[in-house]
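U., I forgot to send this yesterday:
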Amino acid sequence: MMKNTVKKLLFAGLFIPTVMINAQTKVIGHRGYWDTPNNAQNSIQSLQMSNKINAFGSEFDVSITTDGVLVVNHDADIQGVDIETNTYDKIKNLTIKNGEKIPTVEQYLLEGKKYPKLKMIYEIKPHKTKENEDRAVLASLELVKKLGVENQVEYISFSKNICEQLKKHNPKSHVSYLNGDLSPEEAKKLNFTGIDYHYSLYKKNPTWIKDAQKLGLIVNSWTVNKEDDMQYLLDQKIDYITTDKPEVLQKLIK
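Result:
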């Protein structure tokens, strides 16, 4: 009786809203949701705010110090001190705009672990040398596994080497390429999980979103802050949108 009822509902199209909800474009806070009072990009607070508004994910940027500590910061330096060529001791007391000390990735991931529904979109920045990129990859994979947050972390990078190394050392890892110089077919051949390109590239290559999805790739776009650009991507049924204005995007989706 129940099976027959379900079949009738399916044929009637009454389950379509549920399917659509599951397929809805996901909202990611770019460097967290930082555009709030007394907040800062790539801060623990911005991660907390991403969770507070029920964003799908919170993106953050990662570099490695000479002594192997992974830290969260967008630029290669903080207050003029280069991260990649200095020890953690040289930067650990430096603060970001909201007064927080520069977070370590471990601190960030431990905070994110409190919100198991929130994805942490983990961008490993290009480093000056391949050796340092490879160190950052291995340290990241090890830390994520140690903290038990593998199911919450999705990796992204502008460096093809970093993306390749992530898949080499953990084929199951979710890895999307940012740089925009690979077609969906080329990204698929490298076994990447997805592409994550500037929205202008999808306008120049209007079939790429659908092409990528047909190949089984997850499609993301950055950094989409204007409503008309958001709507364009929503109309294309893109998988993720990364934005500094997550609440604006959420209202459009509703």
